Structure formats: C-alpha cells, structure tokens
Amino acid sequence: MTPPRIVVVGGGPAGVRAAQALVEAGVRPIVIDEGRRDGGQIYRRQPEGFTRSHATLYGSEAAKAQALHRSFDALREHIDYRSETLAWNVTTGQLHTAHTPSGETAALGFDALIVCAGATDRLMPVPGWHHAGCYSLGAAQIALKAQACAIGSRVVFMGSGPLLYLVAAQYVKAGARVDAVLDTSPAVPTLGALRGLLKRPRLLLRGLALKASLRLAGVTLLNAVEPVRIDGSPDGGVSGLVVRDARGAEHAFACDAVGMGWHLRAETQLADLARCEFTFEPLSRQWLPRIDACGRSSTAGVYLAGDGARILGADGAEAAGRLAALAALHDLNHARGQALFASEQTRLQRTLATMNDFREGLAQAFPWPHAHAAALPDDAVVCRCEAVTAGELRRSVLEFGSQEVNRAKAFSRVGMGRCQGRYCGHAAAEIVAAAASIPVEQIGRLRGQAPVKPLLMSAQQND
After folding, report:
1. What are the DSSP calls for 161-223, one per residue?
2. For 284-317, what is each residue's pLDDT tens digit?
3. 426 and 357 fall within a common domain
4. How far, in Å, CA of 364 to CA of 55, rounded?
5. Of 109, 132, 210, 431, which has the fewest Cβ atoms less than 10 A away?
6. What mean pLDDT is predicted for residues 199-213?
7. Is residue 129 domain-shared with residue 238, that is, in the same domain?
8. Is residue 451 part of a domain?
C-alpha cells in the first residue's frame, strides 16, 4: 500500500513528538517549521555558532529541551523537514506554504494534517504601549535566546501568568537589569485555582522558586496591580511605567523597555482556515477550536495538538502531539499506527487530563483582566498596526451599531494589520462587548484570513 501523506505544521514539542510517532509507525511525514531550527518557542535553539549551554538557555527546563533536540536530530533523516517555511493557508486537502527566504510557494496535498501551531502572547493594550521599547514577553525571550541580547538596559515586566516570571528570571540570570515584575493577578490564588495547580505540584514549586529567585535578586514584585500608563521619552521610546495597587496608590518605575504578556493565546488561524468549529471557553474568555480527546477537529483529516488547541504547556504539547499523530494513523487504517494507538491512547489521555486540570488552575490563578481592557480610555491605542483607539471602537458600536466584532473591524480597521488581530483582538472584543452591553461571547470572534502572515510580493507558486 502507498504510505499516507501526513503533514505536520510546527517544530515545537507537539510537532516533534507527532513526527516521532509517525516515524515509529513507518511513515515519513513532511514537517513544516516557520523557524530556522526546531524547538518551537519554549525550546528555541540558539543560532548556529552560538555555544551557550542548555542550562544557560533553558534553566530548569534544560533536560527537557535537550531531550527534545536529541529526538529531533535522530528524526532528521526520516522526515521531510522544511524550515523557514510559513504555512499560510489551508484549503480542502491542501496546505499552502511559502519558503520565507526565497518566497517560493507550494501547495501540499495531504491525507492528514496535524497542526501544532503553538501560541503567542495574550496582550492587553495599555495607554502608551505604542512607544518604541514595548515588547511582548515572547519577543523578549526570543531576543535573549536567539540574539543573545536584552530588550533594554533597564527592564520592567508586566502582565500575568507563568511566562511573566520565567522570562524575568531568565533575564536576571543572563545579567540584565530587571527593576520590577508587575502582576495584575492576586498574590494568593483561590481554592479552586489551587486544586488545579496541585495536580502538578513539582511545577507549582518551580514557579514559587522563580519568584523567590527574583526577590533574592532585588527585583520588586507587585501583585493585584492595574496598569495606568507607559510614559514615552522625547525620542519616542519608553521612559517609565505607572501602575496602581489594590489600595489605589500609584507606583512609578523608570525604565527604557517593557515586556508585556497576560498568559498565552492559541494560534488558531490555520484551524479557522481549515473550517474547524470553535467554541467559547468562559474560563479563559477565548474562542478555541473544538477537538475530541485525541485531537481530532471537526474537519475530517485535520488534527490539532499543543498550545494551538489548548494551552497545556510543553509537557502537555508533547503528549498531545503524539496522541494526535496516532489518532491520524488509526483513522487512516494504518496497521502499525492502529496498534500503537490502541496501546497508548488511555495513558496519553490520562496525562492530558491532568495537564488540563492544571491549565484550568492557571486560568483561575492568572485571570485575563477583561475589566481593565473594557475600561481603557478613549485615547488609548488598541490596534498598534492600524493605530485604532478604544474611542474609535466604541464609536463603531454607539454610532454605527456594530455589535459583532467583524462588523466593528469593517468600520474601524481593528485587526486588519500585520498581526491580523493576534495582539489586539481579545481586548477589542472586550471593548466592543462592554460598549454594546452584551456578553463578550455574543459578539463573535475575528475571522481568519489568508495569508495568515505577510508573504513576499515576489512569491512564486510551485505546485
């Protein structure tokens, strides 16, 4: 029989483990990776020629990063690995790609598509965040890992979620000056959050250790803060940041760079283009693609795994990637794959259930501050790509009757820029919902458009 053609999108933990499972079953998958090297964001490899150790780059996660890198190195001869390649569209039975250095495009037919697209920072606009020197936490981490530099000489990190403390600790370890870590979430999680977090006690202790290391390094840690503004300097850069604590007192911090992020949001554009169904999750206030316990989407032949489906972290992504690959082989009646699926399904699903309990605990411990987003002042820039303000969004509702987010997009251009709403979409939805006085799930979600990221004008089709 002709072996099935299976395409894996993503070279992070989920994508690597999916490819590994396929190779074990005797299938040679095509692996599409937007990065130059494997590892994804969390285990991003340093550029060739850099010699920093795994311990230096990944800290407490060094052993896991090294294990994943070794696994991928062992797979290289058994997969069709296409690095620096953007998956920019999905049509029926085809994945459309572009090699970013050359612009050469291709349409890859597939019997099964396993999307391991990962996640990006979930950002909340803050007055002044359009100044040069404001970065997402992920961008700050990329600068450190891939470029061996800090985003500034005096950095403040603000937001919520585990990544906030991880990136700050990585900066301190690298010798950068970090003046403060400002968290919008409460210092003490609720009992419901603790129940979920205690499902992975070792990870919980690791997070507490990160906070302790920051305190020992002299970094100011504040919880339950409300962002007030980011101040700009005469040259257009960042000069400082102001927050308000739970008692109403304001705290000002001088800095030349701000790293921001409120946990993570799933990268769902390819799932959207593949016509997968989505459901609204009230706990995280996000629209997420509907999947079954094995990663099957509502679109036949399309499987979703890793943070692009649910934010389960690297360990959860590895399990989800393997399970989705085995499910794909099972559905394609692949004998070896069916045997592996039967022997591993229960164990992998049990692992993912634990990871999901922990995910829900995190969502409760580090809640998305939707009320802050909805209350942004009218002159605050929401969409940095198109310079759309909160006032313009409210005007689209109050004057033009836009009670659906794509209609508000048509009137205001919010989400029409380079990021296609990745960074402004969640806050924009909260603003529109508040202005319309309806629940945020009733205004819908921004529809994905191809290409999911910009392509070269010189792109040549090569099918």
Report:
1. SHHHHHHHHHHHHTT--EEEEEESS-SS--HHHHHHHTTSHHHHHHHHHHHHHHHHTT-EEE-
2. 999 999 999 999 999 999 999 999 999 999 999 9
3. no
4. 31
5. 109
6. 93
7. yes
8. no
Whether residue 33 contacts residue 138, with contact meaning beta carbons closer than 8 Å, is answered with no
In a domain, 331, yes or no: yes
Q: Identify the bridge partners of residue 456 per DSSP, sorted by sequence position.
A: none
Give percent of the chain above pLDDT 90. 86
Do 183 and 245 reside in the same domain of the chain? yes
Residue ranges making up the domain that contains 53: 6-120+265-362
Residue with tokens 């311990």: 55
In which element (H, E) is residue 16 found?
helix 13-24
Q: Domain total for the chain? A: 3
The CA distances from residue 22 to 31, 79, 89, 384, in Å, are 11, 9, 23, 41
Same domain? For 58 and 11 the reply is yes
Do residues 373 and 427 make contact, with C-beta atoms less than 8 angstroms apart? yes
* 243-271 residue pLDDT tens: 999 999 999 999 999 999 999 999 999 99
Residue that is written with structure tokens 């989407």 in the block:
297
Q: Is the dihedral of CA 257, 101, 415, 288 positive or negative?
A: negative
What length does the chain have? 463
Tell me: do 133 and 104 sit in the same domain.
no
Domain ends where: 262, 287, 316? 262
Identify the CATH number of the domain in which residue 219 sits. 3.50.50.60
With tokens 């969390």, the residue in question is 42
CA 203 to chain CA centroid, nearest Å: 19
